[in-house]
């Protein structure tokens, strides 16, 4: 086993990652607590758009802690929504990440072997979009499952992405505001670049 594989198996990739997320509304207090508890740097963009870009940067363990907190918060939101609903089965937490298309082949693996291994190991569902996102060279990767499964899945995906850097220049996907009458709506809500390695949408 190589040194990198040993670090991965112990859950401690010795690198710094940057993740950028899209989220709706103002969650300043939530983000402040995540910043304090995770040890990662978390910044929220300014602007008049109803969506904000949240940038998370730090050592991988800090990133994974922040990611775990985000997934837990989503699950709490789902539980709260269910108390006023007739739905009896709890839907899984779903997050959408964005990766350079050149890295998606490594994530899928030969004959789908790698993505199958990640699904079986973590218990999370992982889907890689077949098409590039508009005006970019990136693809959306959707992860769903329990907060624990999602966090483990992100660990595996980070490992794959770090072992297979993107090839060539990456054109990041950027959601665009489209004017419709007096309203402005955002084009397909899957996005957000996460450095050259990964991105995720918080919605």
From TrEMBL:
**Source superkingdom:** Eukaryota
Alphabetized PANTHER family for the sequence = KH DOMAIN CONTAINING RNA BINDING PROTEIN
SUPFAM superfamilies per record:
Eukaryotic type KH-domain (KH-domain type I) (SSF54791)
Q: Does the keyword Lipoprotein apply?
A: no
Instruction: Outline the extent of the K Homology domain.
Output: 15-75, 91-162
Q: Which Pfam families match?
A: KH_1
Keyword Disulfide bond in the entry? The reply is no
Query: Where do transmembrane segments lie in this chain?
Result: none
Q: What is this protein called?
A: K Homology domain-containing protein
Keywords for this entry? Repeat, RNA-binding
Organism, scientific name: Mola mola
Q: What is the lineage of its organism?
A: Eukaryota, Metazoa, Chordata, Craniata, Vertebrata
Q: Which GO terms describe its molecular function?
A: RNA binding
**PROSITE patterns the record matches:** KH_TYPE_1
